[in-house]
């Protein structure tokens, strides 16, 4: 590179900073001419100046010209040196001028000055040399010429390169980082705004693509959020949408940007709306950038409709999305995210792949297309491995790639491990990393949400989790609202982040009366496995949660000395290692030592049964759990009898018990006392009437502090034990879906502190006891679905505190007693067409009353 090219490179670099500076114009510039960074620019330019070169350079050039004319023997050599000097003269002069203007230190160019001064002395010496010395001096002149060229081509070039970097450092440290487009250098490599092409092979997106096109082009949706779990194919779907022929015909301009977890609005706007050859204005702030974007958008709309795709948007980007709420029919926005943004636009939930599509995707990743393979896997082998991927595209791809071209033994070994309980999350780092990012976001934003997510690993895969079980857990573990409002809010938040699915069997159950027995939580198995995987990364004694699955019993369980655990939550799921003998649960000593379990500190114990035993004994080690507050027992197999309730007798901190799908004839057939128990929930349980009726102690002694009873889907409950009427601390009594229950006990009026009474979907109940009028603190009454109920008690007017009354699907009611007019505090009656007319004649007595006619929608699939 010659000196001319070097000079051009130096000042071209300065111009690319957006300053448009030349050495001839710089002298007249002020700091304001450089965007407020004039002082920093001066410092930067000082780095490329020279020293006092004029005298040294001019001395050498004068000597060369003089000696060349006087001594013909050196003419050709000196002429060549003169030409070199003439070539560098303008740049020496420019460097001298910059030095004078910028007060550049002399030391920077001392080497160059010394060469020039030594050169002048050399040329002067030539004029007095002897003939025999000419050859030596000629060689020295050639060396001088070479040294000057080398100095500019190597030394000065290296110095300028160094100075350029110093310029960048100075500008960046002072907030004046520009690139050739006039924006901050952090935005320089933003890439194209064109959507990347989708992968060559895709399955399962035909229907979503068709629905999205309909939403955009036919239904007129202007903002759509494609929401799904990480690895479900949201980005692939968005790319395919951008390249679809019908979409490209509909939209003249299709713009695409990846947002990510730490978005930079100005960078995104710059990438989307300014072409490579356009100079970007210096935005004052994000608001200014958004305003400029709107002007650019209107200009683009002059030539056709605009589709904007924002990919990978995370929670916390609400303010960014607000900038893209365009108020025009010609511009539409599609967002992909793991999160809900209901305030931004309509949500499209992308589902996992069905079985056929999952097989197709896995085969494409796992089986070489060219046919070269150690073997051709059987359809049964492929199907079983695919089944463990749960329809998640990313899982299918990473597992498929790991088996691609491998011998049959590798395939069979992988299936064996998966069948024995190893999850895909355990073995595939790429999948784990993708899913983990959602959990890391929880950790950054809301530690409580992360804790709640981790707790979901306590329940078996592929099972519906009752929201009420989670409410019981979290109320005691995290001191959340005991009525479940905070817990349900957390479930909604986790659902909005695609970390679980929250559904209700009745569409308005929770929003009307705050009763969450109809709310069900479902979670993708890979997310459950991730929670378990994370828990296993800690030492057993340090874990907050201890998950034990007897279908894949951990090694530490069978050790002679089991490690002690301080877990606050313990979940135990039975497996094939359980066997029955004479109807009782027997654990072979060589396989499991129940009594050696060292878990004294749990506050929540969850037992998940999934076997064919007729009886299960509560394990003896429960006795040592002095801190236990919540016991949840759920049977996922056939109905079983649960025994050994005496182990609960010494647990003074036990506050909540939830039993599901078990027979409990001996629940109260002991001398145990649960004096601090506050809530008991019995779901699909059997022989509960017998359990309380055969109690050897008074119910009031055993359950002295009971405040809430929930009985749901207990098919053999014929009558509620009269002893329940003596539980004077009881606040809530909920009985639902008990088809054989015919009546409430006459003494129910003794429940002086009862505030909530639900008698829901109990088809044989034909009347309510007249003593109900004595429940002066009752504020909520629900008789929905009591289809045989023909009359209301005359004393119902005594419910002076009643605020809300639900009475849908009560076709047998033909009239209301006159005392209804005394319900002066009644605010809301939820009814249907058959009962709304009964209230019309009483409305003028009840000025605060609002009648709501709502039809009930039941999701029978969830039930």
What does this structure look like?
This protein is α/β, with parallel strands linked by helices and 863 residues long. It folds into 6 domains: 3-178, no CATH class; 186-349, P-loop containing nucleotide triphosphate hydrolases (Rossmann fold), CATH 3.40.50; 355-420, Orthogonal Bundle (Helicase, Ruva Protein, domain 3), CATH 1.10.8; 438-524, Arc Repressor Mutant, subunit A (Orthogonal Bundle), CATH 1.10.10; 538-716, Leucine-rich repeat, LRR (right-handed beta-alpha superhelix) (Alpha-Beta Horseshoe); 718-863, Alpha-Beta Horseshoe (Leucine-rich repeat, LRR (right-handed beta-alpha superhelix)), CATH 3.80.10.10. It has 26 helices and 26 strands. The strands form 5 sheets. The chain has a 13-stranded parallel beta sheet with strand order 9-10-13-15-17-19-20-21-22-23-24-25-26. Strands 2-3-4-1-5 form a 5-stranded parallel beta sheet, with helices on both faces. Strands 6-8-7 form a 3-stranded antiparallel beta sheet. The two termini are 80 Å apart. Mean pLDDT is 80; it is low at 1-51, 177-189, 508-512 and 579-593. Keywords: Plant defense, Repeat. It holds the Pfam family NB-ARC. One of its GO terms (biological process) is defense response. It comes from Vitis vinifera. Belongs to the disease resistance NB-LRR family.
């Amino acid at each position: 590179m010659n000196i001319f090219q070097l000079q051009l490179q130096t000042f071209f670099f300065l111009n690319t900073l957006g300053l448009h500076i030349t050495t001839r114009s710089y002298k007249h510039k002020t700091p304001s001419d450089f965007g407020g960074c004039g002082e920093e620019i001066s410092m930067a330019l000082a780095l490329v100046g020279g020293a006092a070169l004029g005298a040294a350079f001019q001395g050498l050039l004068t000597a060369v010209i003089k000696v060349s004319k006087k001594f013909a023997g050196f003419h050709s050599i000196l002429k060549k040196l003169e030409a070199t000097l003439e070539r560098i003269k303008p740049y020496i002069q420019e460097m001298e001028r910059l030095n004078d203007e910028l007060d550049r230190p002399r030391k920077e160019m001392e080497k160059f000055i010394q060469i020039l001064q030594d050169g002048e002395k050399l040329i002067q010496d030539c004029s007095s040399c002897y003939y025999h010395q000419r050859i030596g001096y000629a060689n020295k002149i050639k060396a001088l010429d070479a040294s000057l060229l080398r100095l500019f081509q190597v030394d000065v070039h290296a110095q300028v390169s160094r100075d350029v970097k110093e310029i960048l450092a100075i500008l960046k440290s002072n907030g004046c980082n520009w690139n050739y487009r006039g924006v901050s250098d952090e935005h320089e490599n933003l890439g194209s705004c064109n959507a990347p092409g989708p992968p060559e092979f895709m399955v399962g997106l035909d229907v979503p693509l068709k629905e999205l096109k309909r939403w955009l082009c036919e239904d007129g949706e202007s903002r759509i959020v494609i929401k799904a779990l990480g690895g479900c194919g949201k980005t692939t779907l968005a790319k395919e949408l951008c390249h679809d022929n019908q979409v490209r015909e509909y939209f003249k301009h299709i713009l695409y940007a990846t947002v990510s977890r730490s978005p930079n609005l100005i960078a995104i706007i710059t990438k989307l709306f300014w072409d490579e050859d356009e100079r970007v204005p210096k935005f004052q702030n994000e608001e200014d950038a958004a305003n400029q974007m709107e002007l650019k958008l209107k200009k683009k709309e002059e030539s056709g409709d605009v589709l904007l795709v924002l990919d990978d948007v995370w929670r916390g980007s609400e303010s960014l999305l607000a900038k893209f709420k365009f108020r025009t029919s010609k511009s539409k926005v599609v967002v992909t995210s793991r999160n809900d943004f209901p305030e931004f636009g309509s949500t499209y939930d992308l589902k996992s792949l069905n079985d056929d599509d999952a097989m197709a995707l896995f085969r494409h990743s796992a089986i070489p297309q060219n046919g070269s393979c150690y073997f051709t896997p059987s359809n049964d082998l492929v199907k079983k491995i695919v089944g463990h991927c749960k329809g998640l595209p990313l899982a299918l791809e990473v597992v498929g790639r790991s088996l691609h071209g491998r011998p049959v033994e590798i395939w069979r070994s992988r299936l064996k491990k998966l069948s024995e309980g190893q999850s895909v999350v355990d073995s595939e780092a790429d999948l784990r990393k993708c899913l983990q990012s959602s959990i890391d976001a929880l950790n950054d934003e809301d530690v409580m949400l992360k804790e709640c997510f981790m707790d979901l690993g306590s329940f078996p895969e592929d099972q519906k989790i009752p929201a009420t079980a989670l409410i019981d857990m979290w109320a005691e573990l995290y001191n959340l609202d005991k009525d479940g409002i905070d817990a349900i809010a957390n479930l909604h938040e986790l659902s909005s982040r695609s970390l679980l699915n929250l559904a209700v069997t009745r569409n308005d159950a929770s929003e009307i009366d705050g009763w969450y027995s109809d709310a069900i939580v479902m979670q993708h198995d890979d997310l459950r496995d991730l929670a378990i995987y994370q828990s296993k990364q800690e030492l057993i004694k340090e874990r907050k949660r201890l998950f034990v699955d007897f279908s894949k019993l951990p090694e530490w369980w069978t050790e002679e000395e089991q490690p002690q655990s301080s877990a606050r939550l313990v979940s135990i799921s039975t497996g094939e290692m359980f066997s029955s003998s004479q109807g009782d649960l027997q654990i072979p000593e060589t396989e499991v030592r129940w009594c050696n379990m060292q878990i004294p500190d749990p506050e929540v114990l969850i037992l998940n049964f999934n076997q064919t035993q007729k009886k299960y004994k509560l394990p003896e080690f429960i006795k040592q759990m002095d801190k236990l507050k919540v016991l949840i027992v759920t049977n996922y197999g056939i109905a079983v009898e649960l025994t050994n309730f005496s182990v609960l007798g010494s647990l003074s901190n036990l506050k909540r018990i939830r039993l599901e799908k078990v027979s409990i004839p001996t629940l109260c057939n002991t001398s145990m006392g649960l004096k601090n128990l506050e809530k008991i929930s019995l779901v699909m349980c059997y022989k509960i009437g017998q359990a309380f009726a055969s109690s050897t102690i008074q119910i009031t002694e055993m359950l002295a502090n009971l405040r809430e009873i929930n009985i749901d889907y207990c098919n053999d409950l014929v009558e509620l034990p009269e002893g329940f009427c003596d539980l004077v601390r009881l606040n809530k009594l909920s009985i639902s879906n008990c088809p054989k229950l015919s009546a409430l006990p006459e003494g129910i009026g003794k429940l002086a502190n009862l505030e909530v009474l639900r008698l829901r979907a109990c088809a044989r109940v034909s009347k309510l006891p007249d003593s109900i009028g004595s429940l002066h603190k009752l504020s909520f009454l629900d008789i929905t679905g009591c289809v045989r109920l023909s009359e209301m008690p005359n004393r119902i007017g005594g419910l002076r505190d009643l605020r809300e009354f639900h009475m849908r699907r009560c076709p047998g009611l033909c009239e209301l007693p006159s005392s209804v007019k005394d319900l002066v505090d009644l605010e809301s009656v939820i009814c249907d067409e058959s009962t709304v007319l009964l209230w019309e004649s009483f409305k003028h007595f009840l000025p605060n009353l609002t009648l709501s006619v709502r039809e009930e929608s039941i999701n029978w699939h969830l039930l």
